[in-house]
Amino acid sequence: MTANTESLVKLKDSKLSERETNSLLGGLVAQDAFENLFDSRRGIYTLDPDEQLVAIYNNNPYEGDPTLRDREFAALRDWLKRKGIKELAFQSWPVDGPSAGYSQALLIRASESQKQLVHDKYESIVAASYERVDPTR
After folding, report:
1. How far apart are CA 94 and CA 91, in angstroms?
2. Model confidence at 53, in pLDDT bands (50, 70, 90)?
3. Cis before 94? omega within 30
């Protein structure tokens, strides 16, 4: 996480429940994607290796199909559930205004080997979307 590492430490030390902490952390990941990773369309990275926290973000709402990204995430979330990989939070940023929801983030608990599987699955889901949107690619 580029800008909110300090926030992660504060959240870990807070008196919030695990669910509240994960929800806030998911929001911070989405905000970070919007503010600091905007040029990157999507990505996956380890947020906290000790806690096996992995962030998946997307800064690419499809102009011609506004629900396609949601369907991509739904497919990934379904796959994660079938694989027993725990989803901790799903958030978007900004929360309001003309760009509301532009960046989305999914927070999961995954080992490094699972992270690679998640990355590969997400890339295959996105590739299938591109194939539907532009079969000439």
Report:
1. 10
2. very high
3. yes
Cα–Cα distances in Å, from 90 out to 108, 128, 132, 134? 9, 22, 25, 28
Locate tokens 């430490």: which residue?
9
Region of residue 101 (phi > 0: left; psi between -120 and 50: alpha; otherwise: beta) = left
In order of 37, 41, 73, 114, the CA distances from 79 in angstroms are: 25, 21, 10, 12
Report pLDDT digits (tens) over 18-37. 899 889 999 999 999 999 99
Structure tokens at 42: 């999507």
Q: Given pLDDT bands bounded at 50, 70 and 90, which one contains residue 75?
A: very high
| Token pair listed for 96 | 């309001």
